[in-house]
Amino acid sequence: MIILDESTRCVVQGVTGKQGSFHTEQMLKYGTDIILAGTSPGKGGQKFGELDVYNSIEEVKEEIDINASIIFVPAPFAKDAAFEAISQLDLAVIITEHIPVHDSMEIVEYAKQNNTTIIGPNTPGIITPGIGKLGIMPTHIFNEGNIGIVSRSGTLTYEVASQITNAGMGQSTCLGIGGDPVVGMDFSDVLQMFEDDKDTDVMVMIGEIGGNAEEKAAEFIAQNIQKPVIAYIAGVTAPEGKRMGHAGAIIEGESGTAASKIKALKNAGVHVVTRPSEIAEIVKQL
Fold it and tell me: Which pathway (predicted)?
């Protein structure tokens, strides 16, 4: 497992909003005991199920020892919420999508200054079967195991995790780094964590067109990673100049094509598959 463990103590920012309330309920149903409180400015003193609701993280910390946050705050206010978390906590999972790129740049830079780990923005979150999830992924497709998954795509994460589970295996941790052009963690950060994690034996990396995150990961893998890595790159047939799905999934000229990413990964010794359905079979072989 990586990032989430029994020592994680999380607050939900935006717990009383439509998305925050729905997904907090789902996280708690899954048995995510590491969620201890929620915040919603102006609604301090209320309850959300068994959770106490506070006006701010500062108020929470006066009563509860927390070190992590998951953010469901709407995009116009997400930067303020992220700054509040970064200034006081070790981990912030930013589920919010459509955050302006300039805001995301400021969030990531502020996190570096404060040594805070950022997952996202625009991420399905993170799940460690047996510990819990901080995110929006459907829990029934995950199973405890030794395969680490890192992805830019939420839905492909679910597809691959489901196939691995149906094949009789399981996941150590699944993490979505986020589909925006600017995110807190990149593939290399997560792959190194999996490399150092005693519970992870095989890594699955799910990429897509746009940007150079996969090429940078390939270079990193060649120099630093010993465990087997299986990769799938989405968007092989995507036309140049057309954004596909995520804000970061756009090809510009020769940069960010599926072909360039696949070539780089193969040169780094990664098992690259042409269809997500092949991943579980290769994991079994490994």
Answer: Carbohydrate metabolism; tricarboxylic acid cycle; succinate from succinyl-CoA (ligase route): step 1/1
